[in-house]
Amino acid sequence: MKIKRILVSQPKPTTEKSPYFELAKKNNIHIDFRPFIHVEEVSERDFRNQKINILEHTAVVFTSRTAIDNFFRICKEVRVTVPDTMKYFCISEATAFYIQKYIVYRKRKIFSANGTFSDVIEIAKRFPNEKFLVPLSDIHKQEIPDKLDAAKLSYTKAILYRTVSSDLSDIKNIDYDALIFFSPSGIASLKQNFPDFKQNNIYIGAFGKTTAKAVENAGFRLDIAAPNPKAPSMTMALEQFIKSVNKK
After folding, report:
1. Cis amide leading into 229 (omega within 30)
2. What confidence tens digit (pLDDT) does each residue in 77-114 have?
3. Which of 138, 163, 188 is the last residue of a domain?
4. Rounded to the nearest 5°, which phi and psi values hold at 151?
5. What is the pTM of this model?
6. Digit-coded pLDDT (tens) for 174-231
7. Domain identity same for 61 and 122
8. Pick from 134, 236, 142: which is nearest to 184 by CA?
9. How many domains does the chain have?
10. Residues in Cβ contact with 114 at an 8 Å cutoff, skipping those fewer than 6 apart
11. Do 73 and 97 fall within a single domain?
């Protein structure tokens, strides 16, 4: 079946230069965007129930901007003043710069990795005496605690936000030729919102190994997988798949 309409389970890009818009124009297809999941804050009460003393920690590991927002939110709610001596280890330079929203940026306290958690660990291992606080969602990559444990670093996981399924009740029928997912939570949302969903001729694409595994575990057929050796991005994988299907 040829692909004419695609639903991407993410927010619509804010820039006109998005590769998705170029993909749609180049291949004469229609792409809709709709987040299947969203983030909810963990309440002050739920945080206190975790019995975490923020000031017992000397460093914070940030894996996303959402983690930064919720860390400083919860500090404000529990009336904790973060000391100037606190160190921050960030998964990327962009994440590191985002901290300026909350503190005066000092490079001697902020360390940025190359976008991978493995690189965060390599940097953190240079500071074996620090006690790290790691703000996370209730649903997070298992590699985070696994790699912290392997590096024998002292750390505490703090669940500061939750990933939950969005309400998609306004979508009466999934009349798309392809559905694109980026996390196992997106697949869970599909099943929750559309318990009678049958894949049939609808193509399903997944970004990342854990998402691909979630597709298969849910009993669906995985048609488009990214990244792969020929397509490091989902848009590239989509374009290759569209060309192979639509030329038939």
Report:
1. no
2. 999 999 999 999 999 999 999 999 999 877 679 999 99
3. 163
4. -85, -5
5. 0.79
6. 999 999 999 999 999 999 999 999 999 999 999 999 999 999 999 999 999 999 999 9
7. yes
8. 142
9. 2
10. 92
11. yes
Q: Please tell me whether residues 144 and 188 are part of one structural domain.
A: no
Tell me: do 125 and 138 sit in the same domain. yes
Quick: pLDDT tens for 137-185.
Answer: 998 888 999 999 999 999 999 999 999 999 999 988 899 999 999 999 9
Query: Which residue, of 163, 198, 233, is where some domain finishes?
Result: 163
